[in-house]
Amino acid sequence: MAALTNGQDRRARFTAVFPKLQKELIEFVIAQGFPQEALSWFQRNLEYNAPGGKLNRGMSVVDTLEILRGEPLSEEEYFKSALLGWCVELLQAFFLVSDDIMDTSITRRGQPCWYRVEGVGMIAINDAFMLEGAIYHLLKSHFRKDSYYVDLLDLFHETTFQTELGQLIDLITAPEDHIDLDRFSLRKHQLIVIYKTAYYSFYLPVALAMYMAGIQDQAAFKQAQDILIPLGEYFQVQDDYLDCYGAPEFIGKIGTDILDNKCSWNVNVALAACTPEQRRVLDETYGRKDSICEAKVKEIFLAVDIPGKYAAYEQQSYEKINGLIDGIAETPGGLKRDVFRAFLSKIYKRTK
Amino acid sequence: MAALTNGQDRRARFTAVFPKLQKELIEFVIAQGFPQEALSWFQRNLEYNAPGGKLNRGMSVVDTLEILRGEPLSEEEYFKSALLGWCVELLQAFFLVSDDIMDTSITRRGQPCWYRVEGVGMIAINDAFMLEGAIYHLLKSHFRKDSYYVDLLDLFHETTFQTELGQLIDLITAPEDHIDLDRFSLRKHQLIVIYKTAYYSFYLPVALAMYMAGIQDQAAFKQAQDILIPLGEYFQVQDDYLDCYGAPEFIGKIGTDILDNKCSWNVNVALAACTPEQRRVLDETYGRKDSICEAKVKEIFLAVDIPGKYAAYEQQSYEKINGLIDGIAETPGGLKRDVFRAFLSKIYKRTK
Ligand SMILES: [Mg+2]
Ligand SMILES: [Mg+2]
Ligand SMILES: [Mg+2]
Ligand SMILES: [Mg+2]
Ligand SMILES: [Mg+2]
Ligand SMILES: [Mg+2]
């Protein structure tokens, strides 16, 4: 067998932790005296919904802790940071299972959405709750004695509520069945991406690792957030851009944001830059499940030079975030610039 | 104006706390810079779903604390215990909003279920999450400095997960669209009622008050649970019994458990006591949306003497629970028998 590359190795080691967590959760339910069909159901819910994504959020807890420590992690540190990483993945699974119901989506990660699996249906709502519930069960059984246990709980609660707020404004701004571009604005787009994505995808994993590294200074958490929230915003703008301009063979899907009436960066920039005539066309074509309408939207996107504006936005974001990273005064036991550089370098000019 | 009765007064004082909590939650969202439509939506979600029930669970936190203290509560103690009571009501609202979607229910507390309100639909799923999220926001802002803060968090997490487990086994045991009485059993009925109802309705409010009263001894929590779980089970058996045998003018609704294929105490006792011929009839008539089928089920319930068996069950439960209450050794700063007597006396031989 060929040697594993570093990246594959890293992923395989992280992935190997999940079955242990699953076993622990199932054993808890067995201990409550639940019948076999309930155990199997919960097991299948965990397996179907928690792994199977890119796992970047989860793995970044481990990576960040390693950078903060400045040396390889002990077995125990690895396991505990990977457990926190899996809690981030469980939180995401809770959001995705329910988001797919709210959006009446068809597929997720190359398989049918959980609620569309035969026999599941609306039970998926309670299954989403149980994915969230699993987080607190795991945190309690592995971190209850740590001084920062309560900080982990507060952080998960706060991040969950922020994400729910982001989901709310997304849902009421861009319902698929009621198109009204007057509801859109770059300010709302920013709120949506920060609350719905940036907090849980970027700040949460780093802050979890910071607590494990023993960081207590609230100013350090504030500084991390002040870098990671713009970084997460930049990441989501890229996601919106690539939905329209990425190569399907790179991004792994054909973008549907225009068809789905998404309050994306592209349409908000176009709305701010277009002529009254272009606006009239956008009003008539955006969010329609029709490829001719979609093509007309894309024409206007080109006419107002979305690609040029994106290139400028990307350069500006990159420079701003780099400046924020340079502003970190590294002290022993404190933040390290490399934590943030690692994120930025993975993201800058990405095409997938 | 006529003097308020004690009961009305008690309810009015508890109810008056909710607008303060709502204001605090909305002000938090305002501080995040969210637009007016998001504020209004969240406000409406809170108002529509949190108050409006019987509030027994919430008020029992206050009552229990008062009994444990043995004297009237200070203004601050009243407020904080009522806040915990409202957190129990918020937890219930989170469960009910989502349960109504999963059960495709029509009305709740005399108004349309939230998901059936014009313009809400599946956004109700995220709204349910936000009702749960509100709990942790309120706990943090009022209890973060208390030594038992982390105990409150653990208790809410544990209770939430227990209720979700109860909901899971209920959902897979008695789906409305697939009738199979072989799935039912008294053992499963017991698991469903304990996990889905007893923990959050009976143990949670008392344990919250115990933490506020400064009780730390784990044995006291264990003893409270050992009384309140059978008490909650007895309460739910009554609920099932009254669904069939209660007077609609007392219980405020016409029971539909038989039509809805519910895994209720009545049918489980009937299944354990019936002849093969009666079983055949039950298989053909239980869970059908048909009043003739319902009448046949009720005939068998009478033939196997559900009312007599219920009277025996009630007497036996009453005596068992009374015995458990008598077993409490009252010590200063510890449990008080009156906490449990207060619950039992409200429940014993209730007709509504
Ligand atoms: Mg979606
Ligand atoms: Mg969505
Ligand atoms: Mg996208
Ligand atoms: Mg229901
Ligand atoms: Mg139900
Ligand atoms: Mg009932």
Oligomer category? homodimer
CATH superfamily of the largest domain in chain A: Farnesyl Diphosphate Synthase
Please give the domain count of chain A. 2
Arrangement of strands in the largest sheet of chain A: 1-2
What is the C-level CATH assignment of the largest domain in chain A? Mainly Alpha
Q: Determine the most extensive contact between two protein chains.
A: A-B, 45 and 45 residues
Which ligands occur here? Answer: magnesium ion
Look at the structure and give the mean pLDDT of chain A.
93
CATH second-level architecture of the largest domain in chain A = Orthogonal Bundle
N-to-C span of chain A: 29 Å
Describe the structure.
Two copies of one chain form a homodimer. In chain A, helix 4 packs antiparallel against helix 5, helix 7 (149-173) packs antiparallel against helix 8 (186-212) and helix 9 (218-245) runs antiparallel to helix 14 (306-326). Chain A has two domains: 12-145, Farnesyl Diphosphate Synthase, CATH 1.10.600; 148-351, Orthogonal Bundle (Farnesyl Diphosphate Synthase), CATH 1.10.600.10. Chain A is globular and about 65 Å long. With 352 residues, chain A is mainly α. The model of chain A has no long low-confidence stretch (mean pLDDT 93). A two-stranded antiparallel sheet of chain A has the order 1-2. Chain A has helices at residues 6-15, 18-31, 36-49, 56-69, 75-102, 123-143, 149-173, 186-212, 218-245, 248-251, 265-273, 276-285, 291-303, 306-326, 337-347; strands at 107-108, 111-112. In chain A, strand 1 (107-108) and strand 2 (111-112) form a beta hairpin. The two termini of chain A are 29 Å apart. The first copy, chain A, is built from 15 helices and two strands. The A-B interface holds A 29, 32-35, 37-38, 41-42, 98, 101-102, 104, 122-123, 125-130, 133-134, 136-137, 140, 144, 149-150, 153-154, 157-158, 160-161, 164-165, 167-169, 171-172, 188, 191, 195 and B 29, 32-35, 37-38, 41-42, 98, 101-102, 104, 122-123, 125-130, 133-134, 136-137, 140, 144, 149-150, 153-154, 157-158, 160-161, 164-165, 167-169, 171-172, 188, 191, 195. Chains A, B: This is (2E,6E)-farnesyl diphosphate synthase. Chains A, B: One of its GO terms (cellular component) is cytoplasm. Chains A, B: Belongs to the FPP/GGPP synthase family. Chains A, B: It is an enzyme of class 2 (transferase). Chains A, B: One of its GO terms (biological process) is farnesyl diphosphate biosynthetic process.
